């Protein structure tokens, strides 16, 4: 089973990479872009049959994948929606 983790800087944290992309878009003639936030997407291949895959991925995020001081994350595990 696959898990996807989307990691973004929290609101209020400066995003120099996003600003560089916004500036480059403007220089290329793409007007109307007021702001850009850049993040990370991590895909994990998990073994089938895990008791609580979301809890496992959450622990991975808290311990390694995300810097929770300045980043937030969202976990998506297709087929796990509505699972207790």
UniProtKB/TrEMBL annotation:
Query: What name goes with this protein?
Result: Phosphoribosylformylglycinamidine synthase subunit PurS
Q: What is its EC number?
A: 6.3.5.3
Annotated GO MF terms: ATP binding; phosphoribosylformylglycinamidine synthase activity
Function of the protein: Part of the phosphoribosylformylglycinamidine synthase complex involved in the purines biosynthetic pathway. Catalyzes the ATP-dependent conversion of formylglycinamide ribonucleotide (FGAR) and glutamine to yield formylglycinamidine ribonucleotide (FGAM) and glutamate. The FGAM synthase complex is composed of three subunits. PurQ produces an ammonia molecule by converting glutamine to glutamate. PurL transfers the ammonia molecule to FGAR to form FGAM in an ATP-dependent manner.
Stored Pfam families: PurS (PF02700)
* One GO BP: 'de novo' IMP biosynthetic process
Gene giving rise to this polypeptide? purS
Which UniProt keywords are given for this protein, alphabetically ordered? ATP-binding, Cytoplasm, Ligase, Nucleotide-binding, Purine biosynthesis
The record's Gene3D superfamilies line, in alphabetical order, gives: Phosphoribosylformylglycinamidine synthase subunit PurS
Location within or outside the cell: Cytoplasm
- EC top class named in words: ligase
Q: One GO CC annotation, please? A: cytoplasm
> What does the record give as its pathway?
Purine metabolism; IMP biosynthesis via de novo pathway; 5-amino-1-(5-phospho-D-ribosyl)imidazole from N(2)-formyl-N(1)-(5-phospho-D-ribosyl)glycinamide: step 1/2
Reaction(s) this enzyme catalyzes, per UniProt: N(2)-formyl-N(1)-(5-phospho-beta-D-ribosyl)glycinamide + L-glutamine + ATP + H2O = 2-formamido-N(1)-(5-O-phospho-beta-D-ribosyl)acetamidine + L-glutamate + ADP + phosphate + H(+)
What assembly does the database describe for this protein?
Part of the FGAM synthase complex composed of 1 PurL, 1 PurQ and 2 PurS subunits.
Q: Which family does it belong to?
A: Belongs to the PurS family.
Q: Which domain of life is it from?
A: Bacteria
């Amino acid at each position: 089973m696959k898990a996807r983790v989307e990691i973004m800087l929290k609101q209020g944290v400066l995003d120099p990479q996003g600003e560089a992309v916004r500036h480059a878009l403007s220089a290329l003639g793409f007007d109307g872009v007021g702001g850009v936030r850049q993040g990370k997407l991590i895909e994990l291949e998990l073994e089938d049959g895990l008791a609580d895959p979301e809890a496992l991925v959450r622990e991975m995020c808290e311990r390694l994948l995300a810097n929770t001081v300045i980043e937030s994350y969202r976990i998506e595990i297709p087929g796990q929606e509505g699972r207790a």
